Here is the input.
Amino acid sequence: MGQRYEMRDKREKLSVATAACDALRALRSKAVSAAQELRKTVEDDKPAPPGLIREIHDALLEGLMDTRVKSTVIERKKLFGIPLETEVPTRSQMRALVKRFELAFLQHAPPSSAAGPALP
Here is the structure.
């Protein structure tokens, strides 16, 4: 059962890292390369450096405050159904992404160890 939890955890982290990369790319953030590096780190089953996680988290919070992030979806001009410009996520999508990122990468202990060690 532990292996199943680890696989689900890895899939969620990979999904969040990919979503962060896409959102930061749409916002033209400088942290896109950091998000790509985080995604590669998760794919390789390596622990993510705290500085990298902090940089991406800060960029996502900045993105949430970006003036291009609106509360509703804005219809973009399209050519043959393909958007002419990158679609910027909505404020609710950014909030959800920040929450998912925090749950995936900023948790300090798994829920099962929250009770603490058993005393003899």
